[in-house]
Each structure stands twice: as structure tokens, then as C-alpha cells.
Amino acid sequence: MSSTLITIRWILFLLCSVISAHLVNSLPKLEHYEIPIWTWVDGPDIINQTSIIDINGNNQQDREYPGARSGSAVWQDGNGDVWMFGGEGFDRKDVDDNDNVTIETSIDDDSTELLNSLWKFDMTKHIWKIIYHRNHDDDIPTARHYAAVCGVTDKFILIFGGLGYSAAAYSDMWLFDLQSFKWHQLLFTQSSDIFPEARGDTVYWCTRESLWIYGGLRSNSEVLADFWKFSLTLKSWEAVNTTTEQLGRETVTSVGTKSGAISWVVDDEYLYMFGGNKVQNYQHYRHLVNGLTSDLWKFSIETNTWTFVKGFTERKHLGKYGNMWEAHPENNPGCRQHGMSWVEGNNLWMFGGEGVTTDPNLSMYSRTNPLSDLWRFDTSNNMWTWMGGSKVSDTGGFYGVRGKQDVGNQPTPRCESLLVTYNNTVYLFGGLGHDRYQKDGWLNDLWTMVLINTTSYKHFMLDKKTVPLSPAKAFLMTLGIITGISILFVFATWGKKCCNLPRHKPSAKSPAGFDVKYSPLSDDTEFTITGMNTSMKEIPNL
Predict the structure, then answer these.
(1) What is the pLDDT of residues 70-85, one digit of tens each?
(2) How many angstroms separate the first and last alpha carbons of the chain?
(3) Which of helix, strand or coil describes residue 314?
(4) 484: Cβ contacts below 8 Å, ≥ 6 apart
């Protein structure tokens, strides 16, 4: 065998060894992941749909269902049932002379209205029921959105403030009695009572004993920075005096003005909030990025202390996503407001909102985009993890098949939605955003999401969707690649006949007209061409 051929074989052997080792070593380590799986379970997949309401028992559709809306006040009681008041959107269009509701699936124009209806979602039966609507003769709260809400299970629901038409701010407070199912206004006198001024879009938290509010918007679009607590037992307001400290890399002296921030309650001891708007004269209906931040704060109820945890207090800060499902100290969501949130153990979860993701082309007049990214913040290590959704703002979602769980399903980008949890399942309803066909408007679709615990290798990008690769599939993929390379190596190196000059089967007649006979040859084989007897030994080397 020539030295050149030996060299080629060794090169092929070394090349195959390097490739095989790289494939084995480059396979990610086996890790534990929580994969969010979404399901579109109810409601239309198009925008601006009206409610199905049965006031007089004439509803032929055998169910009630709220119309598209955003900015509703949402409270979940201790039984798991969800109460939703007001918002902006569509309840119904027409009522005839006999007070019979005209049930419609859509409206002719896309004009919204402010709402003051009260809906209940029975979590065990998964049934919506309208409790109070605008045709009631009783004294009820004025239509509004961005109100604060809290309550006591089986006793009452409280509504405070909100914004009305022309962004007029309210300071009234209403109590809905869960025994009599009637509204009652709580009256405070200027001379003897202490209470907050009118506002809407305030940051609020509901604990077992109190409703807490921070900041908000005045009627003149000025942003507030005061902090208040309402006792659910004493039915009275109290201003909260606080101190400030920081854990993050910035030097921060106070929370400052805030409206529209995302909030969480942890163990009834800590109040968290993220982002929101900080600039004065903020016109929320213009949806501008200019005033939005991406800072995370924690308030201790015991010590009355605000702590700056991490993030960026300057405006218009872009998101830092890192790798999906991997926590990292540098990860941080982009600036936003009106996102949806929930708590799971030590984790703060946040979905969507309106703001920015990674787009660097921002100006003070840039508009926000609805978002669909899913984040988790671990309070034990103070790190964010990008858990799902798109890191590109204003992208589409994927509804899939109604009622069918699928790893590829994804709610469309949205903000100001209803979001609650029950029995380890997340429920997402409505909001302002995109429908299935990328049209902007108000939504009333209902989604659920569960976290699937899985042991898998790091994700691979397949069909532009990030999905986990199971250990079995990863092993088979690697084995197949290594086997294929090994076969090529064997074929190229140890297949001796394949490495010599090819022997072509001659045609029945040679060009010279000789009759040709052929068979496998050895060095001592004699073969005959008509008119010539010879052997392989006698053939000279060419």
C-alpha cells in the first residue's frame, strides 16, 4: 500500500474521531426544565366581540360570556372564583323595548366604551356569569377602567378610583356586598377623614387585611408618588411613610412617580412592583415608550422599607433575554407597563404588557408594542429567567386548535388582561392586543397555561420554535450521526477494492473487435484473449 494512501486513511480516521468527540462533548448537560404549555380554551380568536348576556332568560345560546375588554379591575377570592369589574371594550350593543338583549357576535364599528358591569367566573365549573349590568336601577359605580380592587372572601369587593371618559380621575370607593349582591358607596368627609386624592392606573396590591396603592394618574395626566393603605376591617385610609435602600448596582434614593407598574404580593409580607411609567403629563392613550422603566422594587410591610432590587430606573431600557430557561444575573425584561403577573412560591411571574423588547431604534415619540414574552424572577437569587414567548415585540401568536394543548401554542401579544391562577393552572382572559390575524383591538379569548416539569437537554431551534430535546432523542440523534460517519470511514479506508483503481466491466466486444472473457483474477491467474496466452506475472508494470 502506498504511503500516500496510508496518510489519507490516517487523516480520515483523525477527522472522524474529532467530529465524533465534538458531537459527544457538545451535547448539553442533562437539566431540569419547566416548560410552559398554553391552551386556547374559549372565546373568539378575533377582536372586538360583544358579550353574550341573558338578562330575562331569553338567551338561546345557553351561556353567558363577557365581551372584549381591557383594563378591568380583577380580584380572585379565597374560593378561586374571579370577579371582574369595568374596563374598556364591548359589553353589548342594543337592547330592545322589552329590555331583551340583542345577542351579537360582532359590531359594525370598532368604537369601545367604558364599562361598569360586574362578571364572575366560576373556577370549578368554568362558567361566566354577569352579576351586575348597566340596566340596574340601583346606585352603581360609574363606568371606568384602571380602578384598584380588593376584597374579603364571601363578604365584599372594594373598588377604588379609576379613570373615566376624557381621562377623568375618580376618588370614590364602592363596596359590593357578596351577601345581598348590591353596591354601596363608602363616603368620606373632607373635614374628618384622611383619604387619597382622585387617581387611576395606580399600582395596587391586595393582602389579607389591606388594599395598598402607590402613585397613579391625576385627571391632568400628572403622575403621583404617594403611598396609601386601606384597612379592610376598619374601612379607613392611612398614608404610608417609608424609607428606601438598594441592593442593585444603581444608587436610588426613592421609588419616585409611578403609574401602570406590574405588582406582586409574596407571603402577605412583601409587595413587589416592576416597571411602569415615571414621566409627568403622561397620556396613557398615546401608548408612548418615553416614560417606561424596567426597575424592580420590594416593599417590606413589617419595616415600611422600599428596596431597589435590580433593573434600570432610566427610561426606554431594552430587554436582556439571555438563553431561554436559563437564569443569569444580567437578564432583565425590557421597559413596560400593564403586564400580567402571578406568584408561585419564591417566583414572580410576568407575561406580556406594553413596552419594548430588544428594538434599539427608539425615540421619545416611539410607540409601545404589545408583548408576549414570559418571565420568571427568583426572589431567592434575584435573577430573571426568560421562560417563553417572543423576544421580538409586536409578533404574532399561535392559537392552535381550541381545547387542544400543544407546545407550539402561544397567546398573541397583549396588555391589560385578566390573569389568575388556580390549582397550578394559569388563566388568561382578553386584553388589548393582536388577534389570530394580527389585527389590533380588544380581545375576549380565554387561555390556560401549565408548567410541565421535564428532564431534557438544552433546547434546539426547530421550525423557529424553541422546544426541548428529550434524552432518548438526543442519544439517537448523536448515535445516528456517529454511526453514519463511522460507516463512511470504514468504506473509505478498509474497503481495499474501493481504494484501488476501478475495474470496469468491459463490453461484450472491445473496440478492437476481440472476444473478451472475464472472471475474478489473482496474481497467478491466466486469462486468454484470442490469439494471446499470458499470465498476470508476465504483464509489465505500466
Answers:
(1) 999 999 999 999 999 9
(2) 17
(3) coil
(4) none
pLDDT above 70: percentage of residues in the chain? 69
Q: Please give the pLDDT value at position 368.
A: 84
DSSP state of 428: E
Based on its alpha-carbon atoms, the radius of gyration of the chain, rounded to whole angstroms, reads 34
At what angle are helices 3-26 and 471-493 packed, to 10 degrees? 180
Cα–Cα distance list, 229 to 14, 32, 239 (Å): 72, 41, 6
Q: Do residues 227 and 214 touch, judged by C-beta distance below 8 A? A: yes
Question: Considering only CA atoms, which of 376, 382, 292 is closest in space to residue 330?
Answer: 382
Question: What sign for the dihedral angle of Cα 322, 327, 331, 333?
Answer: positive
26 Cβ neighbours under 8 A, 6+ residues apart: none
Round to whole Å and give the CA distance between 471 and 29: 10
| φ/ψ of residue 434, rounded to 5 | -100, 150
Say yes or no to pLDDT of 366 above 80. no
Alpha carbon distances (Å) from 505 to 69, 128, 174, 526, 530: 80, 82, 98, 18, 18
Q: For residue 479, give the 3-state DSSP assignment.
A: helix
Residues in the chain, total: 542
Q: Please, are residues 131 and 120 in contact by the beta-carbon 8 Å criterion?
A: yes
The amino acid present at 512, given as its one-letter code, is A
| CB 467, CB 37: distance < 8 Å | no
Q: How confident is the model at residue 18 (pLDDT cuts 50, 70, 90)?
A: low
Dist. CA 269–CA 187, nearest whole Å: 29
3-class DSSP state of 19:
helix
Q: What is the DSSP string of 228-251?
A: EEEETTTTEEEE---EEEE-SSS-
Which 8-state DSSP code applies to residue 481?
H
Q: How far is CA 55 from CA 64, 98, 117, 134, 448, in A?
A: 10, 11, 13, 11, 28
Q: In this model, does residue 97 exceed pLDDT 80?
A: no
Residues with Cβ within 8 Å of residue 264, at least 6 apart in sequence: 205, 271, 272, 273, 341, 342, 343, 348
Cα dihedral value 391, 397, 400, 402, nearest 10 = 120
What CA–CA distances, in Å, run from 69 to 4, 47, 119, 231?
Answer: 77, 10, 12, 30
Mean pLDDT of 316-329: 92
CA pair distance 4, 385, nearest whole angstrom? 55
Percent of all residues in the chain with a pLDDT value above 90, rounded to a whole number: 58
Q: What is the pLDDT of residue 81?
A: 98
CA–CA separation, 43 and 479 (whole Å):
46
Backbone angles phi, psi at 34, to 5 degrees: -110, 115
DSSP string, 352-408: EEEE-SS-----TTPBPEEEEEEEEEETTTTEEEEEES-SSTT---B--STT--BTT
What nine digits make up the cell of 293?
A: 422603566
